[in-house]
C-alpha cells in the first residue's frame, strides 16, 4: 500500500525542522573547528613598532662590525665565477662602528692598501687577503691598519653578490644617486652595466652594478664614495617607519645566506641603535699616500704614517 501524502502544513513543518537541524549541525561543525584552529589571541600579537628602539635593546657599548663584500655570487662559494676564475677576493672592506648613543661610523678600507704579511718578501693588497686566509686574516690586517684594540672587530659579515641583491629586492627598490653615468661591458663575466646619473629607484641588480662599477679616472677612491652613498641610502630606507615591522624577517632572511658570527638578536640590537639617528652616518677615512710613480692608480697604496688611534674613531658625546 502506498503511503498517504502528508498534508501541506505537515510537509512545511518537517522542512523547517530539517533546515534547523542542518543549521545546527553547521554551527556545531564550526565550533569543533574552532577548537582545533582557534582564532589568534590579539593580545599575543607583536606590538606595533613606534620606533627603531622597539626592535631590541641597544648594545651597552660600541660594537665594530667588519663587512667584507666578495666577488662571488654567494658568501660560501669556493670560486668567484669571475674572470680570471679562482677563489673569491674581497671587492669591498668596511668597518661599521655602532654606538649605544651616537651615529653609526663607517670606515671604508682601501682594498689597494699595502699589507706586509709575516714571512712574505713583498707587500700585498688588502683585497687579496680573503682568498688567502679568509675572515681571520682580513680581520688581523684591518686591526693593524685601523689601530683597533685586541679583540676587535667584534663581529663580521661576508656578503656575496646575490646576498646584496636579496637584501635590496626584499625592500623592493631603494633611492640612489649615481654621480655619473655608469657604462661597462664584459662578455667573459656576462656583465653589462648601464646606469644613468641622478636620483632614481634602483633594484637589486642595479645596486649590484653600482657597487661593482669602477671609473677609470677615479679608480678605487671613486668606488668607495659610491659604497658610502649606497650605505646612506640603505640606512635611509631602513629607518622609514613603514619598514620597521619588516626588519626582523629581513634580518632572518639575510642571516640564512651570508657568512657571519652575528645572531638574529644581535642584528636587531645593532639596528635598534644604528637607526635611532635615522640615516645619519659619520664617515672616517684612512689617509693614503699618492700612488708611487710608475705604479698607476690601481697599484698598492701606502698609508700616511700616524701615531695613536685613528682620528674620529671614538664615541660621540
Q: CATH first level: which class?
A: Alpha Beta
Number of strands: 12
Largest sheet: 6 strands, mixed
- Strand neighbour order, sheet with most strands: 11-6-1-2-3-12
Structural class: alpha+beta
What is the helix fraction of residues, given as a range? 25-40%
Query: What shape does the CA trace take?
Result: globular
- Per DSSP, what share of the residues sits in E-state strands of 2 or more residues? 15-25%
CATH homology group: LCP protein
As a whole number of angstroms, the C-alpha radius of gyration is: 29 Å
Q: What is the H-and-E element order?
A: HEEEEEHEHEEEEHHHEHE
Low-confidence stretches: 1-6, 8-46
Architecture in CATH? 3-Layer(aba) Sandwich
CATH topology: Aminopeptidase
Distance between the termini: 104 Å
Please tell me the overall pLDDT.
Answer: 80
Count of DSSP-assigned helices: 7
Number of domains: 1
Structure explained in plain terms:
The protein has 317 residues and is of the alpha+beta class. The chain has a single domain, classed as Aminopeptidase (3-Layer(aba) Sandwich), CATH 3.40.630. Helix content is 34%, strand content 17%. The chain has helices at residues 8-36, 129-146, 161-171, 204-212, 219-238, 247-255, 264-274; strands spanning 63-70, 90-98, 104-109, 114-115, 124-125, 155-159, 174-176, 182-186, 191-195, 200-202, 259-260, 281-283. The strands form 4 sheets. A 6-stranded mixed sheet has the order 11-6-1-2-3-12, sandwiched between helices. A two-stranded antiparallel sheet has the order 4-5. It has a two-stranded antiparallel ribbon with strand order 7-10.
Amino acid at each position: 500500500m502506498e503511503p498517504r501524502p502528508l498534508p501541506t502544513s505537515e510537509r512545511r513543518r518537517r522542512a523547517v525542522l530539517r533546515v534547523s537541524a542542518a543549521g545546527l549541525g553547521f554551527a556545531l561543525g564550526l565550533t569543533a573547528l574552532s577548537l582545533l584552529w582557534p582564532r589568534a589571541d590579539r593580545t599575543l600579537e607583536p606590538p606595533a613598532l613606534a620606533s627603531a628602539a622597539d626592535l631590541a635593546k641597544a648594545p651597552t657599548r660600541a660594537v665594530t662590525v667588519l663587512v667584507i663584500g666578495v666577488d662571488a655570487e654567494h658568501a660560501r662559494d669556493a670560486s668567484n665565477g669571475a674572470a680570471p676564475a679562482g677563489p673569491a677576493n674581497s671587492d669591498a672592506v668596511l668597518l661599521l662602528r655602532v654606538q649605544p648613543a651616537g651615529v653609526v661610523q663607517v670606515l671604508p678600507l682601501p682594498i689597494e692598501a699595502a699589507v706586509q704579511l709575516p714571512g712574505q718578501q713583498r707587500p700585498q693588497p688588502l683585497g687579496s687577503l680573503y682568498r688567502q686566509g679568509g675572515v681571520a686574516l682580513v680581520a688581523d690586517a684591518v686591526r693593524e691598519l685601523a689601530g683597533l684594540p685586541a679583540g676587535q672587530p667584534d663581529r663580521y659579515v661576508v656578503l656575496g653578490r646575490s646576498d646584496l641583491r636579496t637584501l635590496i629586492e626584499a625592500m623592493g627598490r631603494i633611492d640612489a644617486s649615481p654621480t655619473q653615468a655608469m657604462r661597462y661591458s664584459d662578455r667573459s663575466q656576462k656583465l653589462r652595466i648601464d646606469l644613468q646619473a641622478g636620483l632614481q629607484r634602483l633594484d637589486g641588480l642595479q645596486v649590484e652594478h653600482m657597487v661593482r662599477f669602477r671609473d677609470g679616472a677615479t679608480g678605487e677612491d671613486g668606488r668607495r664614495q659610491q659604497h658610502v652613498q649606497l650605505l646612506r641610502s640603505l640606512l635611509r630606507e631602513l629607518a622609514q617607519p613603514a619598514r620597521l615591522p619588516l626588519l626582523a624577517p629581513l634580518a632572518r632572511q639575510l642571516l640564512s645566506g651570508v657568512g657571519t658570527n652575528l645572531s638574529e638578536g644581535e642584528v636587531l640590537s645593532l639596528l635598534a641603535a644604528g637607526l635611532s639617528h635615522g640615516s645619519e652616518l659619520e664617515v672616517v677615512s684612512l689617509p693614503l699616500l699618492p700612488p708611487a710613480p710608475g705604479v698607476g692608480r690601481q697599484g698598492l697604496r701606502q698609508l700616511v704614517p700616524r701615531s695613536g688611534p685613528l682620528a674620529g674613531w671614538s664615541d660621540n658625546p
